[in-house]
Every structure is written in structure tokens, then in C-alpha cells.
Write a structure and sequence with these properties.
- This is Adenylate kinase.
- This protein has eight helices and seven strands.
- By secondary structure, the protein is an alpha/beta fold.
- It has a domain of about 140 residues: P-loop containing nucleotide triphosphate hydrolases (Rossmann fold), CATH 3.40.50.
- The chain is globular.
- The site of zinc ion has 8 residues, from loops.
């Protein structure tokens, strides 16, 4: 199966997507991870993408589409994949549909994880990382042993990533609302959208998500009718 996970920053999409992919034998195609890797390697694309992300902005569509096209063609995606972080705009969704059609494939489900904004700001405010090894922590759900320093680098104090600072978080949520919300309409119009509450325990959310995907699978629908051309847009 090919599944898209939608959801605002902080809703737990990364965690849920990784588990879904691992347990199902599908590839996790995380654009955030692909981008952070490019940034860390300081490729020309990575440097440009890093500037955009630090400012809370989105990376251009053609860059994202190219990354996803290459990644989803690798052998580990043969049985299926979970897309996390893509598409983020209606033009990207159309590019994805076109890409899959060209391969004789289709998108099986679009899962939208939803949570109140105040909860998302609070959750993201708890994230920290080690500046040396980039290991991720969460002061609430996955704290370091001493509460302040990296478990593997005891002299190194954890830091907040620039894009997790509150002003940037608010900006990211605003960008998400403005640019990604039309996607929900796009997929809903095609009958491919399932909404799952992203609040509650990680395992509860996961089970709800699995059930929702199972329902789309067992409904046995034919490939969704395409929305009328020119509808939606940015
Ligand atoms: Zn470390």
C-alpha cells in the first residue's frame, strides 16, 4: 500500500509513520529526514533548504518532487511506502498522482492526524537535541538521564532546534494551515481522506490509524475519481 500521512508539526506524524512502515514492511519516505541529511552534508540543495527551514518556510515543489521520485523508486519501497512530509501543497499532490499513474500505481490512503494548536505548541516546546550527535530528546516523553545533557555526551547541554522555538513553531503552524489545509479538501473530494485524532497515547493513535487504513483497504474501492481539473489550487 501507498499511504500519505498528513498532520501539523508536533502531531507525532514521524513516530507513527516510522512504526507503520516498519511493521508493514514498507519504506518510510520522510522528506524531513531527506532534507536534514542534505543540510548536514552541506550540499548546495541542503544549504538552500536549510535557510528555508530555519525561516519556517517550505522548500520549492520541484525540489521536493524530485527527492520523493528518487526515494520511492528504491527497492525497499516495492511493497509500499509511507509518505511523511509530502505532499504539502495541492500542486505537489497532483505531481504525486501523476508520478504514481506513470508507474501504474495509486495512492491507497491519506491519513490526516489532527490536534489542537495549543497542544502542538506545547509538545514542540519540549523537543531538544544534542548539538554533537543530533540525537533527539523530548523533556516530557523521552528525557535525557540527567534532564539536561546528552546521554552519550555528558558535557554537552541539549539545545532547541531553531525550528522548534516558539515563534518559529507558530510560523510553521500558520504556513501549515495556509498551504496544507487545501490538501485536505483535495483528498476529501476524492474520498481518500481519513481523519484520526493525534491526541492521546502514542499507541492509541497508532491503533486508530491502523484501523482507519484497514477500512480503506477493505472497502475495496476502485482508484478514486480524479477531482475536476483546475479545482482547488493554492
Ligand atoms: Zn550526543
Amino acid at each position: 500500500m501507498r499511504v500519505v500521512l498528513l498532520g501539523p508539526p508536533g502531531v507525532g506524524k514521524g513516530t507513527q509513520g516510522r512504526r507503520l512502515a516498519t511493521e508493514s514492511g514498507w519504506a518510510l519516505v520522510s522528506t524531513g529526514e531527506m532534507l536534514r541529511d542534505a543540510v548536514a552534508r552541506r550540499t548546495p540543495l541542503g544549504l538552500e533548504a536549510g535557510r528555508q527551514m530555519d525561516a519556517g518556510l517550505l522548500v520549492p515543489d520541484e525540489v521536493m518532487v524530485g527527492l520523493v521520485r528518487e526515494r520511492s523508486a528504491l527497492p525497499d519501497a516495492r511493497l509500499g511506502f509511507v509518505l511523511d512530509g509530502f505532499p504539502r501543497t495541492v500542486p505537489q499532490a497532483r505531481a504525486l498522482d501523476g508520478m504514481l499513474e506513470g508507474r501504474g500505481q495509486r495512492l491507497d490512503a491519506v491519513v490526516s492526524l489532527v490536534a489542537p494548536e495549543g497542544e502542538l505548541v506545547r509538545r514542540l516546546g519540549q523537543r531538544r537535541e544534542c548539538p554533537v550527535c543530533k540525537r533527539a530528546y523530548n523533556l516530557e516523553s523521552a528525557p535525557p538521564r540527567d534532564g539536561r545533557h546528552c546521554d552519550d555526551h555528558p558535557g554537552t547541554e541539549l539545545v532547541q532546534r531553531a525550528d522548534d522555538q516558539e515563534a518559529t513553531v507558530r510560523k510553521r503552524l500558520e504556513v501549515y494551515r495556509e498551504q496544507t489545509a487545501p490538501l485536505v479538501d483535495y483528498y476529501r473530494a476524492q474520498g481518500r481522506l481519513v481523519e484520526v485524532p493525534g491526541t492521546g497515547e502514542v499507541d492509541e493513535v497508532y491503533q486508530a490509524m491502523k484501523q482507519a487504513i484497514g477500512r480503506t483497504e477493505s472497502s475495496g474501492t476502485t482508484p478514486a475519481r480524479r477531482a475536476g481539473s483546475g479545482s482547488g489550487g493554492r
